[in-house]
Amino acid sequence: MTTIDRPTFWAPRAWLDGGWHERVLLRVGADGHWAEISVGVPTPEGSLLLDGPVIPSLVDAHSHAFQRAMAGLAERREAGEDDFWSWRDRMYRVALRITPDQLRAVAAQLYVELLRGGYTQVCEFHYLQHGVDGTRYADPSTLSWALADAAGEAGLGLTLLPTLYERAGFAEPALRRDQRRFATTPADVLALQRAGQRSGRRHVNAGVAIHSLRAASADSIRALRALVEDVQGPLHIHVAEQTAEVADCLLATGARPIEWLAREGLLDARWQLVHATHALPSEVESVARGGAGIVICPATEANLGDGLADLPRWLAARVPITVGSDSQVTRSWVEELRWLDYGQRLALRQRNVAAQPGVQPATAARLFDAALAGSAAPAGLGQWGLVRGARADFLVLDAGDPSLIGVPPSHTLDALVFSSPGDAIRDVFVGGHAVIRNRRHPAQDAIAARFAQAMAGLWDGAD
Fold first, then answer.
1. 142: which of 71, 137, 156, 241 fits an S-S bond (Cβ 3.0–4.6 Å)?
2. Where are the domains of the chain?
3. Catalytic choice (149, 306, 310, 326)
4. How far from 73 is each of 155, 322, 375, 462, CA to CA, in Å?
């Protein structure tokens, strides 16, 4: 009998190197990372057989966990116009009330949902820092630990991104009263990053973020960049999400947001530009030259009426692209990828916009591989996917799900993304350990009960 001293899985089919491969052996090392991946291997004695097609998970590259508490609760317009800015005012009502315990409860519910949606690492763009009255906690990382505790309970990886946030707008010297929980300096952000990185928590690391050009001065952005020069980890920023933001930036600086970042020499491979919705061709080219990546959040951008990114141009420029759940109106990368192409189809009145005839004619495959290739950098990880050295995260699909029944094996990924509704992700593994089995998380009932209690506390008396 063959002795297996480390977890070894065997899949009938797995998505590797942009295509399906048969009879795949996947061996996990003692560190929870892939030690061996081989194709065409007969079923080894003692291995764990995975009953379904196997695909890599993705990184959720942009999340505001607390906003899960308002998903579905900002979808009414009583009078006047409703846009990003009016939505933001409603979002602040949650931000000003949520306690550390409530944040942990909300985040734990979200993180279980993200696992079910095919994400196994989440990048938390974390700007909620202080007490409800704006007073600093004795431990400045109190709300970071609430997120980390939630991630630990759910079992997914977490990249904390403490965020520089110091003013209400380009012409404002300080924050508004309803932004009092967000206030940070470059030194604060560095301290929070160091605390997160050194916490010793399993699957937790940290980078930094800048809320936006409107929310941080040029001097503070330069100061933070200097402080983290030798710090390992990504640097995220909201940029060019709204046309009003672009106009204000032009007025204040004489440049568009991405143009300003390029002018400052800030578009290297550590930078992740969140949204980048309103970008000129010259700005796309500058991002490509610098090596920065972009994070598109199609469901949130649609929900907020942001607009559509120029996806064909970003793809053609080979800029690293991934996706994020952002405001949590959707918690599945399948839906994000579907709407990433559907938005383009509606705008351009064409089909399969992201496909690349002669190279990759399958829209789902091209979008999935782009997001997969882009997943490591936003999370500050060296590798991602079914590759040796990456963390042993993966998804097992249910070929018997209605969305996949009868679909030729070569079209599995196409049907996963575009044959909706579906619930085809059956099992989820993180670091070689199952965290979702047969679509159930072992703590999901207890987590849901605490989430319901937190929601009752947050919305008690609300209409």
1. 137
2. 8-56+388-444, 58-373
3. 326
4. 28, 27, 30, 10
**278 flagged as catalytic:** no
CA-wise closest residue to 111 among 51, 151, 60, 84: 151
Report residue 65 as tokens: 């966990």
- Cα angle, residue 369 at apex, residues 365 and 374 outer, rounded to 5°: 155
Length of the chain: 463
Distance of alpha carbon 141 from alpha carbon 386, whole angstroms: 33
> Per-residue pLDDT for the chain (463 aa), expressed as one digit of tens each?
233 456 999 999 999 999 999 999 999 999 999 999 999 999 888 899 999 999 999 999 999 999 999 999 888 888 788 888 788 888 898 999 999 999 999 999 999 999 999 999 999 999 999 999 999 999 999 999 999 999 999 999 999 999 999 999 999 999 999 999 999 999 999 999 999 999 999 999 999 999 999 999 999 999 999 999 999 899 999 999 999 999 999 999 999 999 999 999 999 999 999 999 999 999 999 999 999 999 999 999 999 999 999 999 999 999 999 999 999 999 999 999 999 999 999 999 999 999 999 999 999 999 999 999 999 999 999 999 999 999 999 999 999 999 999 999 999 999 999 998 889 999 999 999 999 999 999 999 999 999 999 999 999 866 5
Answer whether CATH 2.30.30.240 is correct for domain 8-56+388-444.
no
Tell me phi and psi for residue 181, to 5 degrees.
-80, -5
326 noted as active-site residue: yes
Catalytic residue among 211, 238, 275, 441, which?
A: 275
